[in-house]
Amino acid sequence: MSKKYAFSLDEIVVYPGQGVGKVVDITKKDIGDETIEYFEIYLSESDMTVLVPISGVEKMGIRRIVTKAEAEKTLEFLSADFEAMPSDWKTRYQMSLDLYKSGALMSEATVVRSLYHRSKVKELPIQERKLYDATCRIFQDELAAALGVSKQEVETLIHSHLEPLGEGETREIDDIDFDDDEVFIDTDLDDDDLDDDFADDE
User: Fold this and answer.
1) Are 147 and 179 part of one and the same domain?
2) C or N terminus of the chain, fewer CB within 10 Å?
3) Are both 99 and 60 inside the same structural domain?
4) Quick one: pLDDT band at residue 187, thresholds 50, 70, 90?
5) Which residue has the higher pLDDT, 88 or 21?
6) Mean pLDDT over each residue of the chain, to the nearest integer
């Protein structure tokens, strides 16, 4: 890896909120009197190439994918017992959104685990389902890249770790009051508007 840049060419990175991508080029552009260097990152899931200012990488939370060992540890985390999220949907949603936006694999695992088990008890509200799906997509992509397996294989691995307890055993989530879940319905929401719509409902 070059000492000058945070990432090298062909390195796999995670762009929080966007997905897993590959650094395909390092370019320069003249903006006024200033020359700005960019990482050119290709996001295969959306078939999109983005230019990211090299100076802004840390602030944007762009990072290398985790190691294989870290990925395996995250899978084990999915099987661990846990405390259910609050029953109030605004509190619960904001907690999940903050974890999602952090871009950390373990934070994404927390969202996936919590909302997966909640969905088994009662269907998730539309907004929460969108957040769950967006988190799952990035979570699966990074695990697949780190473990060197296909997306289909990693989906099977995730499910097997989310269901370690057996049919008759349940988690603390059974005692949650779900009545407030129905309050939050927004059928026109796009993934890019996850936090904007929350703010509108304050």
Assistant:
1) yes
2) C
3) no
4) very low
5) 21
6) 83
What is the Cα–Cα distance from 27 to 163, expressed in whole angstroms? 46
Give the residue ranges of DSSP H helices in 80-176.
89-102, 105-121, 126-147, 151-162
Q: What is the pLDDT of residues 64-96, one digit of tens each?
A: 999 999 999 999 999 998 888 777 778 889 999
Q: What type of residue is 162?
A: L
Q: Is 19 helix (H, G, I), strand (E, B) or coil?
A: strand
Cβ partners under 8 Å of residue 4, min gap 6: none
CB neighbour list of residue 46: distance below 8 Å, 6 or more residues apart: 18, 19
Identity of residue 90? K
Answer whether residue 81 is part of any domain.
Answer: yes
| Rounded average pLDDT over 168-187 | 41
Q: How many residues does the chain have?
A: 202
CATH number for the domain harbouring residue 147: 1.20.58.1290
CA gap 133, 130 in Å, rounded = 5
**Total domain count, the chain:** 2
Please tell me the predicted confidence (pLDDT) of residue 84: 80
